[in-house]
Write a structure and sequence with these properties.
This protein is of the alpha+beta class and 281 residues long. Helix content is 60%, strand content 7%. α2 packs across α3 and α9 packs across α10. It is elongated and about 85 Å long.
Length: 281
């Protein structure tokens, strides 16, 4: 490949032997070459077919050298941790994210909620851990401070990559709903739930699969609930059922979905366990 021009120290336009132009990314690949020089292929980390008015060309020409380095370092760390490979589009989306977040230093306040942080950690532990490791890598390697909200945002990026690009909106909605339910329970009972307990993990897992089944329209077949069972649960756990009623209303408002009576029974049991059986955990 022959060098045509550079966009910055880590991105350049090159031409292959069959006269096709490519945008290539690699550490130092845009530095020290002159038009017509042969490019060292070992320097190329990624390449994109160049089209004059393409979004790719516009994006890469606007990226600074350090952002490309940071993104490459992050990707190299997280790929083996969650067993994925970023495709070109996913890589550019992440570069664009880093370019904006690191330069503008933007705070996404709604993602700094502690409950969202913990729900993400519980719901997507592998992606959450990989994002933590990747952030530590770029903080040490590039001597920069990454905003706290980036942990959640980058976890969403990794979920998206792992699920083939279709999971971000769903995972954000899932996290929002579960976070909201946890907040309702804590406000209604005056108890701060201990996310380290088995009962909490089991409760969150129940909610996760409940919503995933709903999102994918894969409700399981169940025998019809005996109305007396719900009546008995209401009689036995009236305060807990009052909390469940608030959760039912919340889900109806946020997800346009009415929980069936059997799910209300399960919620009563889970909420009672997570708020009353903490000592044995």
């Amino acid at each position: 490949m022959k060098f045509v021009k550079n966009f910055n120290n880590n991105a350049a336009l090159v031409e292959s032997s069959d006269n096709i132009e490519w945008v290539v990314i690699g550490n130092g690949i845009g530095f020290g070459y002159r038009a017509g020089d042969s490019i060292d292929k070992d320097q190329i980390d990624r390449r994109f077919k160049a089209e004059e008015d393409s979004d790719t060309m516009k994006l890469i020409s606007g990226f600074d050298a350090q952002t490309l380095e940071i993104t490459t370092a992050f990707v190299e760390v997280v790929e083996p941790l969650i067993d994925v490979t970023f495709d070109d589009v996913q890589f550019l989306i992440l570069v664009d994210h880093f370019q904006y977040s690191l330069q503008k230093n933007r705070e996404e306040m709604f993602l700094n909620d502690r409950s969202v942080h913990w729900e993400m950690k519980k719901l997507f532990p592998s992606e959450f851990h990989a994002a933590e490791v990747g952030i530590r890598e770029i903080e040490v390697k590039f001597n920069i401070a990454v905003q706290k909200n980036e942990l959640i945002l980058l976890t969403y990026h990794l979920i998206n990559v792992k699920e083939g690009g279709h999971a971000v909106q769903e995972s954000m909605k899932l996290t929002e709903l579960i976070s909201g339910i946890v907040n309702i329970i804590q406000l209604d009972t005056g108890i701060i739930l201990d996310e380290k307990t088995f009962n909490y993990s089991r409760f969150v897992s129940h909610l996760r699969y409940l919503f995933i089944r709903h999102f994918h329209n894969t409700e399981i077949d169940r025998a019809e609930l005996d109305p007396e069972l719900l009546a008995m649960m209401i009689s036995r756990y009236p305060q807990v059922y009052g909390t469940v009623e608030k959760i039912v209303h919340y889900i109806r408002e946020r997800a346009d979905w009415d929980l069936q009576a059997d799910e209300q029974v399960y919620l009563v049991l889970h909420i009672w366990r997570v708020t009353h059986r903490r000592a044995e955990n």
